[in-house]
Amino acid sequence: LSERLQKALSGLRRKGKVSEQDVRDTMREIRLALLEADVNFGVVKDFVKNVREKALGAEVLDSLTPAQQIIKIVNDELTKTMGEAAVPLNKSAHIPTVIMMVGLQGAGKTTTVGKLSKYLMDNEKARPLLIAADVYRPAAIDQLKVIGDQLNVPVFDMGTDTDPVEIVRQGLAQAALQKNDYVLIDTAGRLQIDEQLMTELANIKDLAHPDEILLVVDSMTGQAATDVAKGFNERLDITGVVLTKLDGDTRGGAALSIRAVTGKPIKFVGQGEKMDALDVFYPDRMANRILGMGDMMTLIDKAQKNYDEKQAQEVADKIKENTFDFNDFIDQMDQVSNMGSMDEIMKMIPGFANNPAMKNFHVDPKDIAHQKAIVYSMTPQERENPDLLNPSRRRRISAGSGVPIVKVNQMIKQFNQAKKMMNQMYKGNFSGMEGMMGN
Ligand code: GDP
Ligand code: MG
Question: Where in the cell (predicted)?
Fold first, then answer.
């Protein structure tokens, strides 16, 4: 999803003004991007329609930065489709709150039962009881017991020979005796939706009257995830969704369509195998993830506040033409120091946020002072034409600025790297930057 979408958006980013035709072309790209990511067709259609209507509004076409506005509209619309705000767990008026975990085999039900009980213990000092109602494989019960031991949470099980509904009945009785405030029921799954399983789950539901029926969905399963969500919801009227395995290389296209197709909120996301790898679902963060944009929105907001648009355009042109020189460098440093620290800002740029090379990238305020001193010791010709800076000129600059020659060389090298990198970024090419970042 994101690669395609980023391409569509970076096409826009390159332009100052956007025409109606641009909007139409971009929307076609966004539509294809979403479809390619297996987002449900109906969802894509509505989504694109909403974005197009908003993007074609006069405010966008007349604004100074239409490309940024369109990016924002796409982002806002993604957020809206996924439900705007985080939705908390339903709670029962009297204990226990009963949470039933359902989903296909391997989706992450058992793991999520463990994670959620840890979450409840950490955040509410809860005393949960786990019920092992997956009786089809002995290993499933053992898996839950291991998790229970690890978290120091009691697990109720009756082996594999008892009917799951009966297990749940007795488990609930035990929870009542021991005054557990939460009961989490781990159920069986199948490789696909299957009538026998649905009947069993419906029977457990009728007995337990769960406050939450959480459908656990593997985010890596693409379009299938939507169908699964639809099937489970129609049969069991689920109350929420947990989207797992977001630590994998999925862009979360499933989040977009599940909410739209079922109308049920995604409540948590699983981001790893460990017990603490469960997070509350935030639609706006997921929108950013789908767009692959880091904190692009924050950056745009900051930039809009602090930048003179016209000047920004001039700089952009210089970057594009590769004529960015030391005078611009000094200007930019002054601008940027109004926005926050350099590394903070760099980390907000898409492609940098998750770039391993960024880990070693720090800009010290002292370095900025040095760098300014170096530039001020250059002649106007040198500032405009960095290629003039041969060794003897560099020695003169070092003496004039009081900055050691090593630092002068380093600074010029970094300048050239940054220039090249900005030019690359301007072309929407975020790859292959690792090699350019080192010293
Ligand atoms: P169940 O069949 O639905 O009960 O699924 P399990 O809880 O047994 O999980 C199946 C596999 O997926 C296990 O190996 C889990 O460790 C793994 N798993 C579950 N959730 C996540 C997640 O959020 N991230 C990753 N990386 N693995 C997960
Ligand atoms: Mg399981």
Answer: Cytoplasm
- ipTM rounded to 2 decimals: 0.99
The reported pTM is 0.67
Residue 188 assigned to a binding site:
yes
- Is the shortest distance between the CB of 106 and ligand 1 below 6 Å? yes
Residue in 102, 104, 111 to alter for ligand 1 test, most ligand atoms within 8 A of Cβ: 111
Beta bridge partners of 99: 184, 212
For the beta carbon of residue 248, count every other beta carbon within 10 angstroms.
11
Does the bond joining 386 to the residue before it have cis omega, within 30 degrees of 0? no
Q: Is the CB of 114 under 6 A from ligand 1?
A: no
Say how many Å lie between the CA of residue 358 and the centre of ligand 1.
30
Residue 380 is assigned to a structural domain of this protein: yes
Phi, psi angle pair for 225, to nearest 5°? -55, -40
CA distance 253 to 48: 15
Task: Determine whether the annotation assigns residue 13 to a binding site.
Answer: no
**SS3 at position 389:** coil
231 pocket-lining for ligand 1 (C-beta < 6 Å) = no
* CATH number of residue 372's parent domain: 1.10.260.30
Please indicate if the annotation marks 244 as binding a ligand. yes
Question: Any binding-site annotation on 435?
Answer: no
**What is the C-alpha separation between 436 and 431, in angstroms, rounded?**
11
H or E stretch at 407: helix 405-426
Mean pLDDT of 303-327: 68
Q: What separation in Å is there between the alpha carbon of 244 and the centre of ligand 1?
A: 7
Verify whether ligand 1 is closer than 6 Å to residue 187 (CB atom): no
Q: Which of 223, 257, 283 is the last residue of a domain?
A: 283
Q: How many domains does the chain have?
A: 3
Encode pLDDT of 405-429 as tens digits: 999 998 888 888 877 877 776 665 4
CA 93 to ligand 2 center in whole angstroms: 29
Q: Render the burial of 3-13: b for 16+ CB within 10 Å, e for the rest.
A: ebbbebbbebb
CA–CA distances in Å: residue 226 to residues 43, 86, 93: 11, 20, 32
For the CA of 113, the nearest atom of ligand 1 = 7
Rounded distance from Cα 137 to ligand 1 centre (Å): 16
The DSSP string of 214-279 is EEEEEGGGTHHHHHHHHHHHHHH---EEEEE-TTSS---HHHHHHHHHH-PPEEEEE-SSSTT-EE
427: containing domain: 296-437
